[in-house]
Amino acid sequence: MGRHRPTAELPRHLDELYRRFPFERSLADDPLAMIRPIVQDRRSAEVLGIVAATLAIGNTTAIRGALGRLWALEPGPPADWLLAPPTPARRRALAPFRHRWIRGDQLEYLARVLRAYYADHASLEDAFVVGLAEGGFAAGLDRVAHVLRGDGHSRGLGPPPSGYAHLFPSPLELPRSPCKRLTLFVRWMVRDRYPDFGYWSRVPTGELRVPLDQHVHWIALNLGLTDRRTRSWAAVEEVTAALRRIDPVDPVRFDFVLCHTGISGDCPKERDLTVCGPCSVRPDCRLWRGRAVAA
């Protein structure tokens, strides 16, 4: 079977999907719902954003539950106590925390890394734009990954906990990884359109890459935006390039919509006319294209 290529009508259909999308309904199921109400400024958005993106593994109910448990560990704004000087009390509070394979000692180390970084820098954007200038988006992501691992900011941090560096993969080192969580974090920081924060002003939205989770990948594959059946950095670049041809200025504006079309069940991942019937992109979908639908 040949590659399923996008239809000429796909740009119009994606725009219609975007215009009709129930953002408020879907935001409640997104990690952003757990950080938007408590973000105070750029630094708190970065701290809470990187923690939320790091924990963005598994279903959205579990992710939001993990963030809720984390925020409840200490009184006061979470970004403040995460950036406070490390104490035995914070270490003890975080020690029992678990979300999938992510542990509280890893998050405690991340808090110390961020505190050390912010002693010398105003924003994680500083690191990203250096890499962006040197080698594009992937190099920017690589710079941020190394900052979060603690590279170059190890004063008094000690050795990282086991498995810590694996939380922050780089597309330059691990091209088989789509680096979804860091790419998601950068989307939150750069885009200034709802529901994202837009605190970073030196990164053009056209440079962003799509955070390729399983839902976006499935839909992208069936819309002909990629023919790669495995999520990887190459698939990220391919899907983003296809979306950039539709919207060169803001190619990832469709990410939230496509992701939550999958999360909500609005895309059942099989032919089901009762669900798929109203879908704006059904005529472009591999599962439906060329199939007559009774009126």
Written account of the structure:
There is one protein chain. The protein has 295 residues and is mainly alpha-helical. The protein has two domains: 1-25 and 209-289, Endonuclease Iii, domain 2 (Orthogonal Bundle); 30-208. Helix content is 49%, strand content 1%. It has a two-stranded antiparallel ribbon. Strand 1 and strand 2 form a beta hairpin. Helix 9 crosses helix 10 (137-149) and helix 12 (214-223) crosses helix 14 (255-263).
Strand order of the largest sheet: 1-2
What's the main sheet like?
2 strands, antiparallel
Helix content: 40-55%
User: Can you write the helix and strand succession as a string?
Assistant: HHHHHHHEEHHHHHHHH
Rough outline: globular
Structural class of the helix and strand makeup? mainly alpha
Beta strand %:
under 5%
The residue-averaged pLDDT reads 94
Oligomer: single chain
Instruction: State Rg.
Output: 20 Å
Question: Main attributes?
Answer:
2 domains; single chain; 295 residues; globular; Endonuclease Iii, domain 2; mainly alpha; 15 helices
What's the structural blueprint in terms of helices and strands?
Layout: H1 10-20, H2 23-27, H3 32-35, H4 42-54, H5 60-71, H6 78-83, H7 88-94, E1 98-99, E2 102-103, H8 104-118, H9 125-135, H10 137-149, H11 180-190, H12 214-223, H13 233-246, H14 255-263, H15 273-276
Antiparallel strand pairs: 1-2
